[in-house]
């Protein structure tokens, strides 16, 4: 079967990124800004294929906004309105995620990566925008406008979420098997036998020894907790995995194990993944395409190799050179 990278090799239609003016007081962060050149996208090769997830004009603010900052032309200092103090954590973000593809979202702390992910998983309520999800209803309806019952169903059947902080994704005092069973019950499974066998199978796949299956995650190392989260997220066979800084805080060898596991999951299950990280090294290992976020906006996007080899935006250049 053709790999995602091969599929991307014959691209021709471009998506234009836009250089973002940098406020004077932040000029130390960026040496110069040159216009971001149009980049190839995967569209030409996949023109016939509908995206698995399509996000359009997604925004999330903390605060009510004012006439000044709600004007799309407003120049904000970072992501905060200087007049009313509203934080525009995610601003007008759009992207498409295709079946079996891994898309990386990279950016410094506070750039809006987690907020974006949490809007997709309904942990947070988006202020505006649309999200279409093909595996749910063919991608016909904006899922942000659905009832809370339907949102819950999407959360339980379409998305699997792995949080940066395992305490958000796991019940630390329940056994690992119970954590997985909880997710399976939420997606409609009622067979204790099936939940047990599936749980043991998944824990085996993420290298948790069978003898630890009934132990609570609070007795596990950080890397093991992340692997239980991944097993739980996979338990209802979601077509889309959301991975938020899954390797942050892990030592390098454990980090490498988790990254290998993610690549293996993609190979074995053809799951689409959205991978958030502030670490371009992680993105380099995992992502076919990458979006770079700064102050709530996507400032550059492209195939990961292109972003790494020919970064256009000064902020991306800084990020890439810091890897050298
Ligand atoms: N509940 C909140 N109230 C006000 N501002 C918030 C809230 N949650 C997040 N923010 C702000 O939104 C912006 C984006 O935060 P977010 O956590 O999405 O960034 P991030 O890129 O994921 O950072 P990190 O890598 O540190 O997790 C930040 O400026 C943050 O201070």
TrEMBL record:
SUPFAM superfamilies, alphabetized: P-loop containing nucleoside triphosphate hydrolases (SSF52540)
Transmembrane segment boundaries: none
GO molecular function per UniProt: ATP binding
Keyword field: ATP-binding, Nucleotide-binding
Keyword hit for Cell membrane: no
InterPro entries on file: AAA+_ATPase, ABC_transporter-like_ATP-bd, ABC_transporter-like_CS, P-loop_NTPase
Domain ABC transporter: 53-320
Protein name: ABC transporter ATP-binding protein
Source species: Raoultibacter timonensis
